[in-house]
Amino acid sequence: MTYTQFSTIIPLMNLIPRKISEKLQLAVQQNKSILLLGPRQTGKTTVLEKIPADLTLSFIQPPLRLRYEKDLSQLMNEIEVLKQDDQLPLVILDEVQKIPLIMDMVQDLIDRNRAKFILTGSSARKLRRSSHVNLLPGRGIALRMTPC
User: Fold this and answer.
1) DSSP character for 11?
2) Is residue 88 helix, strand or coil?
3) Strand 116-121 vs strand 34-37: parallel, antiparallel, or unpaired?
4) What was the pLDDT predicted at 122?
5) Are strands 34-37 and 141-144 parallel, antiparallel or unpaired?
6) Residue 129 above 70 pLDDT?
7) CA separation (Å) from 121 to 36, 98, 134?
8) E-state strands within the chain
9) Does residue 94 contact residue 64 with C-beta atoms inside 8 Å?
């Protein structure tokens, strides 16, 4: 059965409108950084696709993940290029639990007022399992996304 035949039998699902989208937009407008956590397949990445970012990285992609694991300073270098005089670039890092140490780099960039971030992770528990994980206490808004 081809995709076309299948889609005529079962129509494509509409996206579920998410209330969290409004909270994300407001936080971004207020130059806040956000840690968006929730179980897999709840729509975190899909919600973020509607938010215009200056840089979006998804660490689910092995080549990208390996490149940043080898040299975390790449993130700082890329953000420095994006930095405007009075505008903080918005950086989306998807699946941050794949590179827990990147959270230290993110904290440094937030503390030095170099960027604002939206970080997604499938589980705070996975992030905490690593011995020295930084969950950015006091530096951003933690939001939880649920399946419904």
Assistant:
1) P
2) coil
3) parallel
4) 79
5) parallel
6) no
7) 7, 8, 13
8) 34-37, 55-58, 90-94, 116-121, 141-144
9) no
